[in-house]
User: Which sequence fits this backbone?
């Protein structure tokens, strides 16, 4: 099981360590630093690093490495999942997960880590339960605590801890009862030079914000549930009911949670909402290169494509660029060779374009590699897979809640090769 | 107001100030002080001095304060075991608290205090908590058993906690079940054959019920445990699979992968024509694909596992090729894994797509990745025969790009393609030859030379090409030299007329001008072959080569099977059996996939049926790993193969029987003998009683000589002296001494930090020395050394290190490293350190040896002012392993004859003369005889040291 945890910041300092079993010397991290040095980019550090007596499993988030030390055979995914859960919890508690935030709240961090893991076994990782055990720090509470001498540690066993619905506490009360669901879909796609789709898939999630009094029992049904053949549920969802009727039936946790994530694979036809026309050329023997890029909407069911951002890693041989955008702003960093064009909204009547020339190193041969164009965008009020919620019903409680569903489509890893 | 304020006090009397605050009457102040202490602890400052003050804060009804104190305790109890006892009472009291949260907290914390003395007190409260009415307490107690087992395994067994833990598997609460399973699995890991998790259909049923209701982490433990079970038949197997499949839709990827493991294993038992089998195969694909949309670290582990799954059951993911396409901003470790899986999935149906992708990757920026991609094209050609032509033309396109490393890599793989499909693609040789000049990597040059040699008859200017390489023969790497030698010999055999000169040149270069034995030997072999029997040479050198195949990249089937049983573990990430690398897992059991029911299946998967069917028949293609072989042998020896694990107990029983029977019969005999003896004349005893003086004297003598065997005298340990002053070592002061304690040589060090900053990461090394002294373990400085702190370390030494004679003989040069720098010093050890315990010579041998050593080797010394009589001296010396063989008294002068043996086997013989009668004459005379006379001086020094202290 998990032996120890070290937090390492971007400059390679260990700024926090926690041991759940015997103490493991910090020097074990030397092996991690070695691997870090070998990796060219921070994100290229291998996730599992063997050392003579231990294994180091790390995740990188918010520019902090969370390095877990293990000594015996442990499922690595278990460790990685747990580390991500730790980060999520910190973020949940402190708003951000930065070195400063962790140092500012070091005692709460220690209490949390102690509560999340016992002897390397996960103990309480549900945010609801943790928050009952250890109250998140707020300015108001700090002031009140100093005056009244009360503590931010719960004195009672959280009620949900052992019940059949461990994710929900009892005695929840709201004056406004509301349940909101966000259907968010991300398209991952690779488009080749000629504009045809090599692979495209959709990662969808339904995030919920449920603030309902008592013990509500909800059902959510879809217009087209057949789309969802590859799904991962929050533990609250009754799997049998889904298998039989394709209806989501659940007692929700209190507050924000991810109800469902799903995956629409490349075998289904995935609509591609934007297209790119590009012409990036270098000529042998010339120190100039041509750059032309035009974006346009495609299969968006009439919805606007917004917050468009185009980035591209230009070849190392490019010294500078001289481009004119028809809208938005563009920047080029001559050191990292990163071109970034903040387009904004695509107007179908007047397509945005970026045109001009690139300066190459004089005398150098023409660059070997073709830059890949990375596109980010958002489309409100539409789920690109066509998923639609049919209705939401509540049982078990008498009041009438406010209900709402929002749809959004975003670009995930959306890449166009040139 | 944030916690960072706790870090800011760096004033001189920080500890003192904290002490005062901890003893304050005000609760709030106390709590703040404990928080400061915890904050200091997290950054590695040593606040152990505050132990009693912090522990005093433990008895409080403020839960936060209690938790903080517990945090402190867990960290420092080990370094202050005596004081930790102070906390026991509060723990025991808390275990009775009406609030289950406090009961659980107490039992949890007690388990984390890794002090032997405390564990004894823990047993009773733990027993109660394991039967607590509140499931929260029970589940915490279950984990505590595992903790306790880690500290003191024997205690846990003696107290019967393991049985209680087994009972918890049937607990009504799923969380308790999950934790009991987790604890048992962890304990079982250190006892591979203990059969702790005795799985039968009833327990399996309980586990499956708990699986639906416990937390995600609990599900992982239960699934991993289920994977160890072998179902009785295919129906049971199917019903377990049906109940596990819903876990594939879990949001936690570790749960998903553990479920995949169970399914992959149990699927093996299902008949392939069963409908359910097909359904299951279809169900496995989507969750695996979903894993690839997670964070990169998760993707990496998932990909490593998918790599195994694809090799075992390619049908699962055969339609999912596209999800493995590489995105340009994937981390490199994900890219490389995806590439590997793409090749494994490549088939005639999708090869066009794969090749187009690989060609795309070959234009990426990352050189390593590009090379791998080019290599992948070659592997595709070898794997999918129909695609070979397309692969070759893709490679030719890549060569046209003239990107140096792409060209070189392409030539290396084209060589492999030639070896797979001989006489098919030689038309491309011309293009390859154009790029000869740009090759600068040995592997590519060697590949090119191989091609030229192999197809010499089709290349008009082969001799010119090879000759051009020959010019810089000595600057080439061995790989290229060997290849060039072979290629020219091939050329000669094919075109003997024009190339005689060339072959002579290369043979002489290889045999006369080279220092490399491999090259020289190969040169000679060719030379002799060519000069004696050119026909034979032709047969040898131009023999038909075996075709290479794709199988060479596949994991060997027995290993693959074992790895499939370990999906989701570290073993699956490294593609090595767990026995190969997991520390502390003594005698790991090799897991095997279960056999499928129905005899018709055996032809379908020969490796599986073979592994279960019996050890006698070995399929020729499978090379069993050593572990398997051993297992097989064991099975052969024991008549019923199933009896494997039960053998040790039965053997023990046998031993018991023997003893019991033996004792009984002995007793019987005895009583008979006694009965008989009573009647007859008393035998031996009375006679010896009849002559007390003789025996008594003998005994006394023996005692005198045997000296203080039972006495605590022990070896003399000189006081510590400063070896490395702080001035010379940036604030680190090292003083130390040497001791020999019950046969173990120890270097005892005091490390003092006289600098302003914390010191960490200590390590030590010795230079070679006269007696091969070397550290037997690492320098154990576990906690960082804070300013003005001194730490005592004792370092066990071995005498098996490298040997080099030092001047003086007992000089030892030491290097100590810490986070600041490396420091060197030298010290001298008393040679008595090396006197071994079995250094007592036989009298006769002593006499013979004494005579045998030439008189030139005898050295005389005088030990002045020593007020000891011979007996006292003898016993004192005995403590330092200097043994008295005999004593002679001549003219009131006692002569002690003594022997010493050094760790390296050198014997030293001495004669010590003590003036028995005359107290005013206090000088002792010592003569030392030894074959290695250099040590005499140091032996004398030891005598002086020992006798005078």
Assistant:
């Amino acid at each position: 099981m998990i032996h120890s945890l070290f937090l390492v910041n971007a400059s390679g300092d260990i700024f926090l360590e926690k041991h759940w079993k015997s103490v493991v010397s910090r020097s074990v991290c030397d092996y991690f630093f070695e691997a870090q040095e070998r990796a060219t980019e921070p994100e290229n550090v291998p996730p599992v690093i063997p050392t003579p007596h231990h294994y180091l499993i790390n995740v990188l988030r918010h520019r902090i490495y969370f390095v877990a030390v293990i000594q015996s055979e442990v499922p690595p995914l278990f460790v990685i999942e747990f580390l991500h859960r730790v980060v999520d919890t910190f973020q949940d508690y402190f708003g951000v997960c930065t070195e400063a935030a962790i140092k500012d709240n070091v005692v709460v961090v220690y209490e949390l880590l102690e509560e999340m893991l016992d002897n390397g076994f996960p103990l309480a990782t549900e945010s609801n339960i943790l928050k009952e055990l250890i109250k998140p720090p707020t300015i108001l509470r700090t002031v009140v605590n100093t005056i009244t001498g009360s503590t931010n540690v719960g004195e009672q066993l959280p009620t949900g801890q052992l019940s059949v619905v461990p994710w929900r506490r009892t005695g929840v009360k709201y004056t406004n009862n509301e349940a909101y669901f966000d259907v968010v879909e991300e398209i991952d796609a690779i488009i080749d030079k000629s504009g045809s789709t090599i692979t495209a898939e959709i990662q969808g999630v339904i995030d919920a914000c449920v603030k309902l009094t008592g013990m509500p029992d909800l059902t959510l049904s879809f217009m087209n549930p057949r789309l969802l053949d590859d799904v991962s549920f929050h533990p609250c969802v009754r799997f049998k009911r889904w298998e039989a009727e394709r209806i989501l039936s659940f007692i929700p946790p209190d507050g924000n949670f991810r109800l469902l994530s799903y995956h629409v694979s490349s075998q289904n036809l995935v609509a591609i909402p934007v297209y790119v026309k590009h012409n990036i050329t270098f000529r042998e023997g010339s120190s100039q290169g041509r750059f032309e890029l035009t974006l346009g909407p495609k299969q968006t069911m009439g919805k606007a494509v917004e917050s468009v951002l185009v980035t591209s890693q230009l070849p190392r041989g490019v010294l500078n660029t001289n481009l004119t955008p028809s809208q938005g702003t563009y920047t080029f960093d001559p050191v990292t060779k990163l071109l970034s064009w903040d387009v904004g909204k695509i107007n179908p009547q007047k397509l945005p374009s970026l045109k001009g020339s690139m300066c190459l190193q004089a005398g150098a041969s023409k660059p070997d590699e073709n830059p890949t164009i990375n596109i980010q965008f958002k489309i409100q009020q539409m789920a690109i897979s066509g998923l639609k919620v049919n209705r939401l019903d509540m049982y078990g409680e008498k009041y009438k809640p406010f209900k709402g569903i929002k749809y959004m489509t975003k670009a995930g890893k959306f890449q166009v090769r040139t | 107001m944030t916690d960072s304020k706790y870090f800011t006090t760096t004033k001189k009397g920080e500890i003192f100030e904290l002490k005062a605050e901890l003893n304050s009457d005000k609760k709030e102040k106390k709590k703040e002080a404990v928080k400061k202490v915890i904050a200091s602890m997290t950054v590695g400052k040593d606040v152990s001095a505050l132990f009693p003050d912090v522990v005093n804060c433990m008895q409080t009804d403020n839960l936060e304060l209690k938790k903080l104190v517990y945090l402190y305790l867990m960290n420092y109890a080990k370094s202050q075991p005596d004081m930790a006892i102070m906390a026991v009472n509060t723990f025991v009291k808390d275990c009775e608290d009406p609030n289950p949260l406090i009961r659980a907290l107490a039992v949890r914390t007690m388990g984390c205090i890794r002090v032997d003395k405390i564990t004894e007190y823990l047993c009773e409260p733990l027993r109660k908590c394991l039967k607590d009415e509140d499931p929260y307490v029970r589940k915490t107690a279950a984990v505590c058993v595992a903790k306790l087992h880690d500290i003191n395994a024997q205690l846990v067994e003696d107290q019967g906690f393991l049985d209680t833990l087994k009972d918890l598997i049937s607990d009504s609460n799923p969380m308790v079940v999950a934790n009991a399973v987790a604890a048992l699995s962890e304990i079982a890991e250190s006892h591979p054959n203990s059969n702790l998790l005795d799985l039968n259909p009833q327990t399996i049923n309980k586990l499956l019920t708990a699986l639906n209701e416990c937390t995600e982490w609990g599900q992982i433990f239960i699934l991993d445990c289920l994977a160890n079970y072998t179902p009785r038949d295919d129906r049971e197997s199917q019903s377990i699979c049906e109940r596990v499949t819903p876990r594939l839709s879990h949001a936690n990827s570790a749960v998903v992968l553990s479920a995949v493991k169970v399914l992959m294993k149990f699927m093996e038992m299902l008949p392939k024509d069963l409908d359910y089998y097909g359904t299951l195969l279809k169900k496995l694909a989507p969750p695996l694909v979903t894993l690839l949309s997670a964070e990169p670290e998760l993707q990496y582990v998932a990909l490593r596992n998918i790599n195994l799954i694809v090799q075992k059951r390619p049908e699962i993911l055969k339609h999912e090729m596209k999800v493995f396409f590489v995105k340009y901003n994937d981390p490199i470790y994900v890219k490389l894994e995806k590439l590997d899986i793409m090749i494994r999935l490549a088939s005639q149906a999708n090869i066009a797509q794969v090749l187009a992708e690989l060609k795309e990757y070959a234009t990426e920026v990352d050189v390593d990745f590009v090379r791998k991609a080019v290599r992948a094209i070659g592997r595709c050609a070898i794997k999918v025969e129909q695609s070979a032509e397309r692969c070759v033309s893709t490679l030719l396109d890549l060569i046209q790009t003239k990107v140096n490393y792409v060209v070189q890599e392409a030539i290396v793989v084209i060589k492999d393609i030639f070896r797979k499909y001989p006489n098919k693609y030689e038309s491309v040789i011309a293009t390859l030859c154009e790029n000869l000049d740009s090759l600068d990597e040995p592997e590519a040059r060697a590949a090119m030379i191989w091609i030229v040699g192999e197809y010499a008859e089709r290349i008009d200017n082969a001799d010119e090409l090879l000759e051009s390489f020959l010019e810089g023969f000595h600057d080439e790497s061995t790989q290229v030299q060997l290849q060039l030698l072979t290629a020219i010999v091939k050329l000669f055999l094919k075109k003997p007329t024009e190339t005689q000169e060339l072959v002579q040149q290369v043979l002489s270069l290889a045999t006369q001008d080279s220092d490399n034995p491999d090259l020289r030997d190969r040169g000679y072999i060719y030379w002799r072959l060519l000069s004696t029997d050119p026909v034979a040479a032709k047969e040898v050198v131009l023999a038909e080569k075996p075709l290479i195949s794709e199988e060479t990249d596949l994991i060997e089937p027995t290993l693959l099977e074992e790895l499939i049983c370990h999906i989701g573990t570290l073993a699956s990430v490294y593609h090595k059996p767990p026995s190969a690398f997991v520390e502390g897992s003594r005698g790991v059991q090799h897991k095997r996939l279960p056999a499928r029911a129905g005899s018709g299946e055996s032809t379908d998967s020969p490796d599986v049926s073979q592994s279960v069917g019996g050890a006698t028949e070995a399929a020729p293609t499978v090379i069993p790993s050593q572990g398997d072989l051993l297992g097989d042998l064991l099975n052969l020896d024991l008549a019923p193969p199933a009896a494997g694990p039960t053998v040790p107990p039965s053997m023990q029983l046998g031993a018991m029987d023997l003893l019991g029977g033996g004792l009984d019969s002995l007793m019987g005999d005895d009583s008979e003998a006694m009965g008989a003896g009573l009647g007859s004349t008393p035998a031996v005893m009375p006679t010896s009683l009849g002559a007390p003086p003789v025996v008594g004297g003998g005994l006394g003598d023996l005692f005198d000589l045997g000296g203080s065997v039972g006495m605590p005298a022990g070896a003399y340990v000189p006081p510590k002296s400063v070896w490395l002053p702080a001035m010379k070592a940036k604030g680190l002061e090292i003083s130390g001494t040497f001791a020999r304690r019950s046969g173990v040589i120890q270097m005892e060090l005091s490390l003092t930090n006289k600098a302003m900053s914390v010191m960490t990461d200590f390590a030590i090394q010795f230079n070679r020395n006269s007696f091969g002294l070397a550290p037997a373990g690492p320098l154990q400085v576990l906690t960082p050394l804070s300013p003005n702190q001194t730490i005592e370390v004792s370092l066990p030494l071995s005498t098996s290190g490298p040997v080099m004679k030092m001047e003086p003989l007992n000089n030892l040069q030491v290097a100590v490293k810490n986070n600041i720098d490396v420091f060197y010093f030298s010290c001298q050890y008393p040679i008595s350190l090396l006197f071994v315990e079995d250094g007592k010579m036989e009298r006769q041998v002593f006499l013979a040896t004494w005579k045998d050593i030439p008189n030139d080797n005898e050295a005389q010394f005088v030990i002045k002012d020593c007020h000891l009589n011979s007996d006292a001296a003898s016993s004192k010396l005995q403590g330092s392993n200097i043994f008295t063989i005999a004593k002679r008294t001549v003219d009131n002068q006692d002569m002690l004859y003594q022997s010493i043996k050094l760790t390296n086997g050198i014997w030293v013989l001495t004669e010590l003369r003590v003036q028995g009668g005359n107290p005013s004459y206090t000088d002792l005379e010592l003569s030392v005889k030894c074959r290695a006379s250099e040590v005499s001086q140091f032996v004398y020094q030891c005598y002086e040291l020992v006798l005078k202290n």
